[in-house]
Write a structure and sequence with these properties.
CATH architecture: 3-Layer(aba) Sandwich
Shape: globular
CATH superfamily: Chorismate lyase-like
Radius of gyration: 17 Å
Number of strands: 7
Oligomer: single chain
CATH class: Alpha Beta
Strand content: 25-35%
Number of helices: 9
Distance between the termini: 32 Å
CATH topology: Chorismate lyase
Number of domains: 1
């Protein structure tokens, strides 16, 4: 599916205020790995090695998608809007961001397929600095100028949402993760990603066949 053609953002706050699109409700978690296992890198032991590396590694998912599919990732903006400080369904780490907040939601399209969905929470001023082009993957915006950036994966989950099933063309639940970006020890954003099971075309089964009957 081709990404919608959109103009570069000239004012993130203005775009968020004027947009008629409101953020979709966050997907419902059906299972979440304990934080200690995520931090230790031992979460999701039933996952194949390729999926564990993809979900728990600290690499850029948009770069990984491009390498896997051999096509650039196109960002399709769903919504960008002011976020209440007590956002329902938001990861606990969002509380560490300084208000006022914005929430941004996008589809990740690659090679004519929708392979992921993402939502991110930002301080409004940070969004003004880093999200000036809505079509650009966040990783590219944050690493502009080759400044140092640190990614910390905080959560792994299986989630469900009817609107995800419609777009992915597959039944849930789906693998999800959330993480934070830091620069100079300061938290910049919290990002949640959900991935289509079509990624098994390149990564192989998320759960090896001999383990599926026990999962």
């Amino acid at each position: 599916m081709a990404a919608r053609r959109t103009a570069p953002i000239t004012s993130v706050a203005a775009t968020a205020t004027e947009s008629a699109n409101r953020p979709l409700p966050s997907p419902t978690p059906l299972w979440q790995a304990p934080f200690a296992t995520v931090a230790a890198g031992s979460a999701g032991p039933q996952l194949s090695g390729a999926w564990r590396l993809f979900l728990l590694g600290d690499g850029s998912p948009t770069r990984h998608l491009r390498l896997l599919v051999g096509a650039p990732v196109e960002v399709e903006l769903l919504a960008m809007a002011p976020e209440p400080e007590t956002a329902a369904g938001a990861p606990a780490e969002v509380e560490e961001l300084e208000p006022p907040l914005l929430r941004r939601q996008v589809w990740l399209n690659c090679g004519g397929r929708t392979l992921g969905w993402a939502e991110s929470w930002w301080n409004r001023d940070e969004a003004e600095t880093h999200l000036r082009d809505r079509r650009r993957p966040i990783w590219h915006s944050l690493t502009e100028g080759r400044t140092e950036l640190f990614r910390e994966v905080d959560g792994l989950a299986r989630v469900s949402a009817e609107w995800l099933e419609r777009r992915f063309g597959a039944a849930g639940p789906f693998w999800s993760r959330h993480y934070r970006f830091f620069r100079g020890g300061r938290e910049l954003t919290v990002i949640r990603e959900v991935f289509s099971p079509e990624l098994e075309r390149w990564l192989g089964p998320a759960i090896p066949t001999d383990l599926q009957k026990d999962s």
